[in-house]
Amino acid sequence: MAITVKASLGTEKYYTEVVAGENTLITDEPVDKGGQNKGFNPFEILATSLASCTAATLRMYIDRKEWNVEKINVEVELENFPLTKRTIFITNISFEGTNLDDEQMKRLHTIANACPVHKILTNDIEILTKFS
């Protein structure tokens, strides 16, 4: 499955409109990096992808099992270490309105780590850059 997004950046530092299909979002850089903080920065978007995919994957599984879980909270902290070329994602998951047992929690841990974005981020990644 191929996904295409288009980012357009004009002369307003670093305000970028990103379009995917019929959806648009704004990215920007923080004020201390020369932006105006009008949207998520690129690292926040990356962490958002993991957080939202994890939540959706858990919801699909929980609904299929017909477990009663009112709310799934997923918090992702991204730490980037450019000098060592290492990035760490810390994912903290909590559930509201439920009483899951240890076996269910163990299974949900496995399911969370099986979300498609998690799999992409832990597999080999190749980026091909072309100019047109």
Automatic annotation (TrEMBL):
InterPro entries: KH_dom-like_a/b, OsmC/Ohr_fam, OsmC/Ohrsf. Pfam families: OsmC (PF02566). It comes from Chryseobacterium ginsengisoli. This is OsmC family protein. Gene3D superfamilies: 3.30.300.20. PANTHER family: OSMC-LIKE PROTEIN (PTHR39624:SF2), PROTEIN INVOLVED IN RIMO-MEDIATED BETA-METHYLTHIOLATION OF RIBOSOMAL PROTEIN S12 YCAO (PTHR39624).
